[in-house]
Target: Glycosyltransferase RgtA/B/C/D-like domain-containing protein
Amino acid sequence: MTIPGGLDDQTIHLSWGLISNSPFTISDPNLNSFHVYRTIFEHLLNPLLANQPLSTLILSIGLSVFGPNFYFIISLVSVGLTFLFARLLLKKYRYSFLWALIFTFSSYMWSHLWKHIDLLQIWIFPLFFIIFRQFFTINSLKNAVKLAVFFTVSTLISNYAGFMSLIYFLIACTVNLFYKWYSEKKFDFLLLRNTVLTVLIFACLLVITLFPYIKANYLGYKQVGRTVARTYEDFFSFSSRPWYFLLPPVKNPMLGGFSVNILERIKRTDYFLADDYFANEHQGNFFGIVFLLVSSLVLLWSYKNSVETRKNITIYIVCNLILFILMFPPFFTIGGMQIYTPGYLLYKYFPMFRVSSRFSVILLLNLVTITAYVVNENYEKLKSNLKYLNLIIICLTIITLIETFIPFELVKKDIPPTVYSYLNKNTPENTMFAVYPNNSTLDAMYWIYSHKRFLINPKYYSSESMVSEEFTENLNTEEGLDKLLELNGEYLIVFKNVSEEDKEIFENNSKIKLVNEFDDSYLFKVEKI
Model:
């Protein structure tokens, strides 16, 4: 099959589509009996026990029935829904089609396309804005319940989408409360009541709907699935930096080289926050230089010249500023002094959401929405001052789409590596093996349907006895090979992309014996002591 973008975090789902021919089961009884496979595929075997049960249920059934291509079909459907709801949100504004294009085909979308199906559910955000707008227009109990239900469903589809929507909801309500109190000297108790009710109803619904997951992972005698502990360092590595918003994606064919050079210069400063650029996440912080410049100028001009738009501009910008500083790492240093940021609150109270840079998608939608609103409200004034306004907006859209584009390659995965075919034909069904180095573990997991043997160290796997990544990294040591023996490993596959030093270590170790050499790998037999 052809895999857009190549193997990445979606490999578990693609592999599931190849080894499961009916819902909630691994079709091969032998593979189904292996505890490692039952662990890494736990969320697909029992989707209602997953932390995103709704999207996991759809994926589990769809992949089993339609095969791995279902993953890519759902990805395209998600992009289509994003454009549909963005257009619906902006339909009352001029150029809604173009504004929707800018939001839909953002660098955030390209960063997660084909890789993270839950993070690709970007349509949730414009739909949230639509429902949120109703909440403010008619501040009723009915709309509070509707919004709470929306938060619940969103969280069941994508934990991050639900969480980020909730955080923005709390920020926007707080800003509106303070703005009304400051400008009108009135406190909106009705808004406060409905805000609190929304949060309480959402919390109750979430506990009820996620109770199977909570029970399985926190109330039972053991955890299931792929529960991962987040470290404090993660909140520095995966948070944002101000300069990320000004650097085009490093993989952009036209501007990527510029960003690489700038990032290298920043890195050479040796500042502890200067070397954490992670392309798969931080590329999504870029909205387009031209779009940022034009939208900023339009908002500034409108704020000065249009009293009618001043309130909305103020509220939107304040909300964006608060969200912006939440994306920063827990602290930074100046002259050796630690200065804590609001990002520390995310670590302290929401440690399960480490990638605060993902808030950028709401920042973008907010900026697109307020820009569309201002252009629409001041259309006649702008048109009288700008003769070719239509052409300017069209050019703005085209340039922005070019700036934010991140290409992907099409990778063919039709013929398995020879070593896996050999393993399938020349070893018993319950043969246990490991692969080395770490960058081969994803590939080995994808080819489970081909080798049909027990892979000890698939990526993401962890248990009380081993963590896959650490185990794989240590396989070139005596302790690592002892661990392989302890886990009843019978074979070790070493791919030839390792260093010459590693090759010598494996070739000269008495605990393993070379069985066969292939074009891209070596197959070693583990010698039982």
